[in-house]
Write a structure and sequence with these properties.
The complex is a heterodimer of chains A (about 300) and B (about 425).
Chain A: H1 12-30, E1 34-37, H2 42-55, E2 64-68, H3 74-87, E3 91-95, H4 96-101, H5 113-128, E4 132-134, E5 151-154, E6 182-185, H6 193-203, E7 214-221, E8 224-227, E9 240-247, E10 257-260, H7 266-274, H8 280-284, H9 294-301
Parallel strand pairs in A: 1-2, 1-4, 2-3, 4-6
Antiparallel strand pairs in A: 5-6, 7-8, 7-9, 8-10, 9-10
Helix pairs in contact in A: 1-2, 6-7
Chain B: E1 14-22, H1 28-38, H2 44-56, H3 72-77, E2 84-89, E3 93-99, H4 107-114, E4 119-125, H5 132-143, E5 148-154, H6 163-177, E6 184-189, H7 213-219, E7 232-234, E8 237-239, E9 251-255, E10 266-270, E11 274-283, E12 286-287, E13 296-301, E14 312-315, E15 322-332, E16 343-348, E17 351-364, E18 371-372, E19 383-395, E20 407-411, E21 418-427
Parallel strand pairs in B: 1-3, 1-4, 4-5, 5-6
Antiparallel strand pairs in B: 2-3, 7-14, 8-9, 9-13, 10-11, 10-14, 11-12, 11-13, 15-19, 15-21, 16-17, 16-20, 17-18, 17-19, 20-21
The chains are: A alpha/beta (about 300), B alpha+beta (about 425).
The complex binds guanosine-5'-triphosphate and magnesium ion.
């Protein structure tokens, strides 16, 4: 047996953990067919860790679902495989390329991969009949997300209606849905970016190596450092440079920028974030920067 | 951010959840924007976006409410429609803020934000004084047993920092509050727009000697607000690995709602009444010596008793009585009124059942606190006392004793929407 808590106080990180575990168990108990949307990023890894804790020593009572954009970083895929192996989890892969090939989503050549993920994801949810989908969204990420419930209702078209959200009281979650609808579940709602890093630090869990500082060939585009890859090549007078960088979020290669950094441990990352002046999405996600309501619009359509 | 949490004790800080309340335009969102800004919790890109949109709207000053009014329609109408959750931390505390709407039409969203709050922050526009809506919100905070309350007399800049105005509102509110259940009240004169007495002490209010809002938020004592005496453990999920390694493992997973559980404790499982002893308490792959609220743990029992989701583990001599007759205060949250004989779904802890409305005893007038006993129904945003009969027994306590085992939600059986929030007075 371990520590006794003489004063019966739970630290804020332990409170967040307890709240998230409670959410996982509620969903597993009340929904017929939940699934965990796994992006391979730090938030979905923390989600996976919390799910592991919620059901231990049993295995996860639901599979994972990953949308394969075809532009995922190799480091992210290998970390994913390690987690899936260790947990003995089942995973569904929904490929954007397949969805385009099958005509499920239309590629007009102008729309970003990120938007194509929406159609691919909704199609995978519908095809498999998933009734609840865990997402790693946090309310501190963005002001439309700051408005969302832990249980976020989606209609038959996968849409979110921000003006008609159900009241959500205490920790009494209402999981009632009609056939064809599903619920998005956000167990990390109340976590901040800093909480996530402190948790990764405390739990000593594996995350993709691209979160830590490393040398990389990069191109400066729209004020963002993008990694040189098959998807990102210099155009016009753009220069390829070699820099010490790390990623603050992971999305697809064509959209996700990195930041200059020398932080090579979780502790150093925590120090760096604590004094950061720009949000993680503002800094490194091209897809969120188009308009003031970019995120709200994508959420309404069924984005993560 | 300007208050670095570089020390390893970020995870160790304690947590305060607070919710704003008050009428439309009293300055709730502006105040939260101000708190975030002055505590240096706003990122440059966020502030730039808000400054730019204030300019494009032709405002003379930066509209700080835009920092939390995150929906397109909120920005268009200049009001808050749904709760926004915001976060910030000082070296000693992490804060979870629920910025709620003041508009009466969105009262249910205010109740959503306030239901989990440790502290309610009621704003009043100094020029207007208490309005029906500020009273309604104070009544709701008191019904929800939010243990700490701050009355922020806002827009003091528009009343020339008048001590008389402050005193008048202070008196009016304390008189009203004596009829409510408000254990701890602080009244602070502020200007959310200009920042007076929010984070820094104002030179405009030499007559005020109390704390700034931030000082109060950082120091209000919330640790003692939980029940550590009466053991309540609603079972959420039965963990049965059915693997070779854990062949015989059978654990009851849940979040402690009250009291302290220890291995060796004699316990009773409700509603069956079977007794057993706690064999062990697991937190992931560790065994712990104790579990207390709000820990999420897995409890193993010595005997093979029948336990499933919806059951409750309590102490042999201290257990709630299973009951199908519930007397409660409800806040009604949908257009179609609540009527006697109506059937609804009820969710209480981890138990879901059907319920019928036996009687509506009275409707509470939020202004006068008069109990209208002639009422035949409860309309949208109305509060009243009702009697319910449930299809299966609930394992409940009065809400005044335990906010978890004393609360429930009502769900419309056809639409699946949450239509009522209930706080139990008594079960018999
Ligand atoms: N002069 C002055 N104006 C203020 C002050 N606080 C808020 N305001 C203004 O009052 C108006 C309403 O402020 P909001 O913060 O949107 O009010 P609210 O309480 O959040 O309103 P709802 O959320 O819609 O209920 C805005 O124009 C603010 O700039 C203050 O202390 N002094
Ligand atoms: Mg507001």
């Amino acid at each position: 047996m371990t520590t006794t808590h003489a004063d019966y106080q739970l630290s804020q990180l332990d409170q967040l953990e307890a709240e998230s575990i409670h959410i996982f168990r509620e969903v597993a108990a009340e929904f017929e067919k939940p699934v965990l949307m796994f992006s391979g990023g730090k938030d979905s890894i923390v989600m996976l860790r919390l799910a592991e804790k919620a059901f231990y020593p049993a295995k996860l009572p639901f599979p994972l679902l990953q949308v394969d954009t075809g532009l995922d970083f190799d480091e992210v895929l290998s970390t994913r495989d390690n987690w899936v192996d260790r947990l003995g989890a089942r995973i569904h892969i929904a490929s954007v390329d397949d969805a385009i090939a099958n005509g499920v989503v239309i590629d007009d050549g102008k729309t970003s991969r990120n938007r194509h993920q929406i159609g691919t994801l909704l199609n995978a949810i519908e095809e498999n009949g998933f009734t609840a989908a865990f997402g790693g969204g946090r309310r501190d990420e963005e002001k439309a997300r700051a408005k969302e419930r832990v249980y976020s209702h989606r209609d038959e078209f996968g849409q979110w209606d921000p003006k008609m959200q159900r009241p959500e009281l205490w920790s009494l979650y209402n999981g009632r849905i009609h056939a064809g609808e599903h619920m998005r579940i956000f167990p990390l709602s109340n976590w901040t970016e800093l909480d996530i890093w402190h948790y990764i630090d405390r739990e000593q869990i594996e995350i993709p190596s691209i979160y830590f500082a490393h040398e990389r060939q990069v191109i400066l585009r729209d004020g963002m450092w993008l990694s040189l890859s098959d998807a990102v090549q210099p155009v016009g007078n753009e220069q390829v440079e070699t820099k010490m960088v790390r990623f603050r979020t992971v999305g697809d290669k064509s959209q996700t920028g990195c930041v200059e950094s020398t932080a090579s441990t979780t502790a150093e990352i925590i120090d760096e974030i604590a004094i950061a002046r720009v949000t993680e999405r503002g800094a490194t996600r091209g897809d969120d920067r188009f308009s003031e309501a970019a995120m709200e619009d994508r959420k309404k359509e069924g984005y993560f | 951010m300007g208050t670095p949490q570089t020390s390893s004790d970020h995870g160790q800080m304690d947590l305060l959840r607070f919710a704003t309340a008050g009428s439309v335009d009293d300055g709730k969102s502006t105040l939260i924007g101000r708190l975030l800004l002055d505590s240096k919790s706003i990122f440059e890109d966020q502030l730039e976006a808000v400054e730019a949109s204030s300019v494009s709207k032709g405002y003379d000053y930066t509209d700080l409410a835009l920092l939390t009014d995150g929906l397109r329609s909120e920005r268009e109408q200049g009001i808050t429609i749904d709760v926004a959750y915001r976060y910030f931390a000082t070296p000693s505390r992490k804060f979870i803020i629920a910025d709620t709407p003041g508009h009466i039409q969105y009262t249910r969203n205010m109740v959503t934000g306030a239901s989990t709050a440790d502290l309610g922050l009621v704003l009043v526009d100094a020029r207007q004084g208490l309005t029906e809506q500020s009273r309604r919100h104070a009544v709701l905070l008191s019904l929800l047993r939010v243990p700490h309350l701050v009355l922020a007399v806002n827009k003091m800049d528009l009343v020339d920092w008048s001590e008389e105005v402050y005193d008048k509102i202070h008196k009016e509110f304390t008189t009203f509050a004596t009829k409510l259940n408000i254990p701890d009240l602080e009244v602070i004169p502020i200007s959310a727009l200009q920042g007076d007495n929010v984070v820094t002490r104002s030179e405009n209010t030499p007559w005020y000697s109390g704390p700034t809002l931030m000082h109060h938020l950082e120091n209000v004592h919330v640790a003692s607000d939980r029940d550590l005496v009466d053991v309540r453990f609603p079972v959420q999920f039965v963990v049965r690995p059915k693997s070779d390694e854990f062949h015989d493992y059978r654990g009851y997973a849940g979040q402690v709602a009250g009291g302290v559980l220890k291995p060796g404790d004699e316990v009773v499982v409700l509603p069956s009444g079977m007794t057993s002893k706690i064999q062990g308490i697991d937190l992931f792959d560790q065994e712990v010596a104790e579990a207390f609220p709000p820990m999420s743990v897995t409890v193993r029992l010595e005997d093979d008793v029948d336990v499933s989701r919806g059951d409750m583990i309590a102490r042999v001599n201290n257990a709630p009585k299973p009951s199908q007759d519930i007397d409660a205060m409800v806040c009604w949250m949908t257009n179609e009124p609540l009527k006697p004989r109506q059937k609804l779904q009820i969710k209480h802890t981890t138990r879901t059942a059907r319920a019928m409305v036996k009687d509506i005893q009275y409707r509470l007038d939020v202004n006068s606190l008069h109990r209208d006993q002639d009422t035949k129904e409860l309309g949208l945003n109305e509060i009243g006392r009702i009697q319910l009969r449930t299809t299966v027994p609930l394992l409940c306590d009065p809400y005044s004793k335990n906010r978890t085992t004393g609360s429930f939600i009502l769900i419309d059986e056809a639409t699946g929407v949450t239509v009522g929030a209930g706080m139990i007075n008594n079960a018999s």
